[in-house]
Design brief:
single chain, three-stranded mixed β-sheet, 12% strand
Length: 128
C-alpha cells in the first residue's frame, strides 16, 4: 500500500474515536513511518516481536501544574509491520484503529497492562 493511502486510513481511524476522547486530545502529532528503528526497538527492550505504534510524550496523568510550552506529544504508526500482520485491506484498517486507540490510551495515562486488559475484554464482548 502506498503511504498516502495508509495515512488516510490513520486519519479515518481518528474520526472513529469516541467523542469524549477525541475532544480531549490536544497538542499531539500523529505520524506514519515505515518501521521502528533498531534504536527504538532496543530502547523498548524488543528483541523479538512486532512494534505497530509508539507514544512519545508525557501522559495527561503525569503532567504537573507547571507543564507547558512543550513540543507536541507524538504517536508513530508503523506501516510495514501492520501490513505484514494483516491478512487483508480490511484487517489493516482494524489494526490501525486498534493501534491508534492503544497509543492514545497511553496519552491518557493507561499503561500497557491496562490497555491489553481493556482490549481483551472488548474482543470477548465483540465475539460473544
Amino acid at each position: 500500500m502506498d503511504r498516502i493511502s495508509f495515512e488516510k486510513i490513520v486519519q479515518k481511524s481518528l474520526t472513529r474515536l469516541p467523542r469524549r476522547f477525541k475532544n480531549k486530545v490536544k497538542n499531539i502529532s500523529i505520524e506514519v513511518e515505515d518501521h521502528p528503528s533498531r534504536e527504538t526497538l532496543e530502547d523498548m527492550g524488543i528483541e523479538h516481536g512486532t512494534l505497530l505504534g509508539l507514544y512519545q510524550g508525557v501522559p495527561l496523568t503525569a503532567r504537573e501544574w507547571n507543564y507547558g510550552n512543550v513540543l507536541p506529544d507524538r504517536i508513530v504508526i508503523y506501516q510495514r509491520p501492520i501490513e505484514q500482520t494483516a491478512q487483508s485491506p480490511e484487517e489493516i484498517e482494524e489494526i490501525v484503529l486498534e493501534t491508534v486507540i492503544h497509543e492514545i490510551g497511553h496519552y491518557f495515562g493507561f499503561d500497557d497492562d491496562e490497555l491489553y486488559r481493556i482490549e481483551k475484554e472488548k474482543r470477548k464482548k465483540d465475539a460473544g
